[in-house]
Amino acid sequence: MGESQCAAGQTVxxxxxxxNAPLRAxxxxxxxxxxxxxxxxxxxxxxTLSVALDGFVxxxxxxxxxxxxxxxxxxxxxxxxxxxxxxxxxxxxxxxLATTVYWLFGKGYSDKSHAMQVEHKKLYGPIWRxxxxxxxxxxxxxxxxxxxxxxxxxxxxVRTELPHWKEYRDMREQAYGLHVDKGLQWYRIRSVLNPKxxxxxxxxxxxxxxxxxxxxxxxxxxxxxxRSQDHTTVxxxxxxxxxxxxxxxxxxxxxxRLGCLEEEIxxxxxxxxxxxxxxxxxxxxxxxxPLWTRNVLPFWKQFIRAWDDLxxxxxxxxDHKLAQMDAQVLAGKQVExxxxxxxxxxxxxxxxxxxxxITELLLGGVxxxxxxxxxxxxxxxxxxxxxxxxxxxxxxxxxxxxxxRSEDLSRMPYLKAVIKETLRMYPVVxxxxxxxxxxxxxxxxxxxxxxxxxxxCHYAASHDEGEFVDAERFRPERWLRGDPESYQHHPYSxxxxxxxVRACVGKRVAELEMHFALSRLMQHYxxxxxxxxxxxxxKTRTLLIPSKxxxxxxxxxx
Length: 558
Ligand code: HEM
Hints:
By secondary structure, the chain is of the alpha+beta class. The chain is 45% helix and 13% strand.
């Protein structure tokens, strides 16, 4: 079986042999490049720590960099000082179990964990410990400390253990996929997914299909606003953008249109949307509850059902594509396609892995872009000057409502700054995780053994007045090079997609979708809040989302 690139960057299938592939990939299916690279990385020099920078200083202690080797962005460096010289997790301050329960349920922070980050940082400083039942977490909430953790994350970083996801996969004898697989297996999968997701030139191939979906979004917005009482207001914009996000990412992943922006949404799509919502909501509940409750409470069964629905929908769409490809090959035709065709034909993933990876990409790619776009429009609607500056930039690069091409985006720095600033203020992933697996680490003069769970408090870091002047104000200018309002930020002060090898695989696709959608919405409409509409606060439901529906007025531009 083989796969090659046609001129347009599309994948052209030469032959097919994916059927009968084992469900979970054996190690020998790793790409040779991944294996070689990994073997090179496993060379150690005595007792090592991977630390942030050459000659990096942690808590006043300097690490010798003489024995270090550059490994990607990490440095393997010999530590000069014995662990016992450092403070330990037991020296960290932080809320007890009772205090945490009081914060969550007494003070009402259960859906405001982003705000709790900020308050706890004020109380305990930029590093503190939280304990909650079996969970013991070290929180870091300054760019410097976040960078120290990430730079020691090891070769194959792990966010957190997901034993209940793994249990489900084992139960159904499915492949593990990106979130459950670890180490070399995770790296092997990422190496296959990355090229056509993260390389700018490759991602540009998706521009036409994204534009089609944006066109449907514009039509839907027009229908909804005309249907409203004042012929301008679109109610619950996030729900509409969710459909856009779903259609956008699935048109890339499945190479087919699902019709989410039509009047009547297909049943299968509604099923997937409901299942994604259920799975994410139940995931935390199931993890917290003791095993015996599974026979008494409905949550575990619901969690399984939600996963079944998710995987089944993705599987049916993939099988449909496979049947099409088969028919074309049998008819002696060349099979052309994009992401799914590439995954199915590259011979590096089993069919079982393709099912799970596509499901995971879909799960990661919908709420994230849709919520970010909702916040961007919400912020622009309340800041006429920024909206005007954005509109002027877009019309100067693409006059007469020309569709922006990928290359036009490089001449739209303000557009990019608007998205960056939106993600700084409302990072859709407000907190991330790192579980140290390879090494003991030192962060801020504390020594942490392997298996320490860190919580990276991105929201608190990107709302810190010390990092961002007027942190609560929407000021896209702060990201513009050469603008009087711009200034140098710590590189880890706002990292909404994460950084390093485990960072978001969908970053480029998400940016392309958001840049195209926002620029074309601006070309067509001036956006305003409803008269007297109060501010909308965010809330956390794993992701940072608006706490109530965002209704905006869309006034057609001349
Ligand atoms: C505004 C848009 C998005 C934001 C802010 C975002 C943010 C993130 C963050 C913070 C992570 C964790 C990174 C880390 O641990 O260092 C992540 C992981 C991930 N994202 Fe995104 N994401 C976005 C859009 C997307 C899209 C469009 C897709 C699908 C195409 C996607 C798929 C994934 C997947 C599969 C992972 C797990 C990667 C791994 O574990 O190897 N994301 N994302």
